[in-house]
Design brief:
Blueprint lengths: L10 E4 L4 H12 L4 E5 L7 E4 L2 E6 L2 H8 L3 E4 L3 H14 L3 E4 L6 H13 L5 E3 L5 E4 L3 E4 L8 E8 L2 H10 L5 E6 L10 H10 L5 E7 L4 H12 L4 E6 L23 H10 L3 E3 L2 H14 L2
Parallel strand pairs: 1-2, 1-5, 2-4, 5-6, 6-7, 10-11, 10-12, 12-13, 13-14
Antiparallel strand pairs: 3-4, 8-9, 8-11
Helix pairs in contact: 3-4, 5-9, 6-7, 7-8
């Protein structure tokens, strides 16, 4: 089992014929992802070969879904076209849209999220500006390296792409059910809470690592959700303990003001909810290792 992305997921890639889309399509195929098509307006009917695998190209998501039964799209469309691409996927009714694109204007992200809500949220959106989602040994949708961990029973949700990779590597001998990089923009489609709820319900996830960062109140809200709804062990890490107030650090959403949004405030909220919080990524991995070993 896994959350949202499984061995049965059928994936299309919007922007597959571009340089980034092509590069990562090859990687995803090598990881065992079932990629059934690409989407590039005006190039429908063509095929692209990836190491002996021929993948058809469609003009739109709806056509790709009708022809292939696709239920996941990975979006590698440039920022100025990304809003239209995600709206197209929503209108087609695809189950999951993984938006990798960085630099999408916040008002565009807000617009496609509002469109999804208005349509009754037919599509789970992960991202934008995220590394994607991987269920090791089953499927990989995005840019997360496929060879740094194996399947296991830890769930991981993270704002940071690089810290996602580090945590996967440090716990590679234990393994993960699903790793979700939700992105660090001010507006994102899937939150910590969404992933926590899914991992709580997943019978093959025994414990959860949650990685946050300074800025906003997403981690504090996640702490309240954990307190009320999560019975599985949760280990957390907040990036940015040494960040100066008033500075944007890396992600567009990682800005603090006064005592609001600081790493220390988030740590206090999480610990009050029963989450064990590490002060470094390596310590966080060690804490999760202790949780998993004590459960054996």
């Amino acid at each position: 089992m896994a959350i949202w992305l499984t061995k049965d997921s059928r994936v299309v890639v919007q922007g597959m014929t571009g340089s980034e889309g092509s590069k990562h399509t090859r990687r995803m195929l090598a990881a065992g992802t079932t990629i059934v098509g690409g989407v590039t307006p005006g190039k429908g009917g063509q095929e692209v070969e990836f190491d002996g695998v021929r993948v058809p190209v469609f003009n739109d998501v709806a056509g790709a879904m009708a022809a292939t039964g696709a239920d996941v799209t990975v979006v590698f469309v440039p920022p100025k076209f990304a809003r239209a691409a995600v709206v197209e996927a929503i209108d087609a009714g695809i189950d999951l849209a993984v938006v990798i694109t960085e630099g999408i204007p916040v008002h565009d992200t807000t617009a496609f999220w509002a469109h999804n809500v208005a349509k009754g949220q037919p599509t789970r959106i992960i991202g934008p500006n995220c590394p994607g989602i991987v269920s090791p040994g089953a499927s990989n949708a995005g840019i997360i390296p496929a060879d740094i961990t194996g399947p296991g029973r830890i769930g991981l949700v993270s704002k940071s792409g690089t810290l996602t990779y580090q945590m996967m590597y440090e716990l590679r001998d234990i393994g993960f059910s699903t790793c979700v990089g939700i992105g660090g923009d001010p507006v994102i489609g899937t939150t910590h809470i969404d992933a926590l709820a899914a991992f709580q319900e997943d019978p093959d996830t025994d414990a959860i690592v949650m990685i946050g960062e300074i800025g906003g109140d997403a981690e504090e809200r996640a702490a309240e959700f954990v307190r009320a709804n999560v019975t599985k062990p949760v280990v957390g890490y907040i990036a940015g303990f040494t960040a100066p107030p008033g500075k944007t650090m890396g992600h567009a959403g990682a800005i603090i003001s006064g005592s609001s949004g600081t790493a220390e405030a988030k740590k206090v909220a999480l610990e009050a909810a029963g989450v064990t919080v590490g002060t470094t990524p390596t310590e966080t991995a060690r804490l999760m290792r202790d949780v998993m070993l004590s459960a054996r």
